[in-house]
Amino acid sequence: MSGCLVLKRDGPEAMGAVGLEVLQRATQPVGKRGGSDASGYGPIDAHLAESLFLQMGEFVLRFESEEFGDEYEERARLELRETPEQKKEAVAKLRELLKADPELDVPYEEENFLLTFLRPTHFYPESAYTRMQNFFRFKVKYPKYCSGLIPSRERNVFEQGILTVFPTRDHLGRRVLLIEAGKKWKPKQCTLDEIFKGVMVVLEAAISEPRTQVSGVQVILDMDGLSLSHVWQFTPGFAKAVVDWVQDCIPVRLKGVHIVNQPYVFNMVFAIFKPLLNAKLRNRIHFHGTDRQSLLNHVDAKCLTTAYGGGVAIPDFPGGKLCDLLSNYDSHYELRAQNGYTTKK
């Protein structure tokens, strides 16, 4: 799967699509062992990518199947040291490191897989190898989050409407993920673990998209309506798992975490996480409250909905529709789950 959630303006008008619909599942499986996508990290078929989409007003959400163009190529060169020569050298070195590790079973012959870890580590193969080790060790250490993690099994969190991918990238090409962990989160209906797993499902898609590998992700946490009943769900153990995953495991360029509409009780939640944060992540967390201009200083208005000071108008829609779209790629997640450590680390 070389695609992430992407929303575009093209397509729906030509098809006469109106409102919000998800196309029926393709008749052929999305990914199988063997062929060009033996691990779930290869590019998806372009025709399949075009046929599966979620329409949100005038925007369309679908997986990208194409590589990035000149703008992203230049950004990759300037920010990630990515050149044809550096890419070839780093891929070869990382492949050697993986071949020498008999316990880590991963598709090291597939360049798409290696680039997933090389780009966020600026093409330093040793750093990519370390992050890859951490990524797969996390899966062994925390089976309650990672075992059997496929979109169709996480339908509940999506149906709550807690997770949204905004229609457009920001001015630097970054994906923007919204997590509404206040009013929309009802702990008796959806656990905190389910929210974390839902985020993992979305970012599992994001880490395979070349454009997102280059530009990264922005996360907005809307805490409006957070109460003590929510606060009691957070534990030091949960905080450690989340911080470990974000800081040391997931191969994504997390460019910013933006807290908005937070009430006073949010300080109790942040106090659990703060001691675990390294300086880099701590500096990328921004508290905006209800100050929309403060948020706009970091996230371009063209990619934000009107509720957050932007100009993008998308209708409310059943969150389960996003799960329907992601579930078409269940087999990719299943293939990926076969990678990792052959013995407990």
Automatic annotation (TrEMBL):
Domain of life the protein comes from: Eukaryota
TM spans (from-to): none
UniProt GO cellular component terms: membrane
Domain spans labelled CRAL-TRIO: 154-316
MF (Gene Ontology): phosphatidylinositol bisphosphate binding
InterPro entries: CRAL-TRIO_dom (IPR001251), CRAL-TRIO_dom_sf (IPR036865), CRAL/TRIO_N_dom (IPR011074), CRAL/TRIO_N_dom_sf (IPR036273)
Cross-referenced CDD domains: SEC14
Pfam families named among the record's database cross-references: CRAL_TRIO
Protein name: Alpha-tocopherol transfer protein-like isoform X2
Organism lineage: Eukaryota, Metazoa, Ecdysozoa, Arthropoda, Hexapoda
Gene name, Swiss-Prot/TrEMBL: LOC117639803
